[in-house]
Amino acid sequence: IDFYQNYLDFLNNISKNTLIDIYDVMGRKLFCDVATGESCVVEVGNVLSAGLYIVKVSGKEGVRTQKVIL
Are 14 and 35 in contact (CB under 8 A)? Predict the structure, then answer.
């Protein structure tokens, strides 16, 4: 996962139908999307303000969770 000012870029071996969830530190789901290709760009600038978030990527390869600071 690469982080930029207004979006997250998922480049590494994301398969179709991979679920991308973003949670705040209180565990509330703020964003949910499904990747439709081998890479996925999630524009979060209009959805999320500056802060700490948890990104969960779930697919046939397994589940990966990562903290993100925007």
Answer: yes
d(CA 64, CA 58): 7
Amino acid, res. 58: S
Q: How many CA atoms lie within 13 A of 48 on its CB side?
A: 27
CA–CA dist 56, 12 (Å, integer): 14
Residue 31: Cβ-neighbour burial (10 angstroms; 0-12, 13-18, 19+): middle
**Residue range 13-27, pLDDT digits in tens:** 667 788 889 999 999
The model carries a pTM of 0.77
Strand partners, 35: 18
- Residue 31 structure tokens: 């964003």
Taking a C-beta distance cutoff of 8 angstroms, is the pair 35, 44 a contact? no
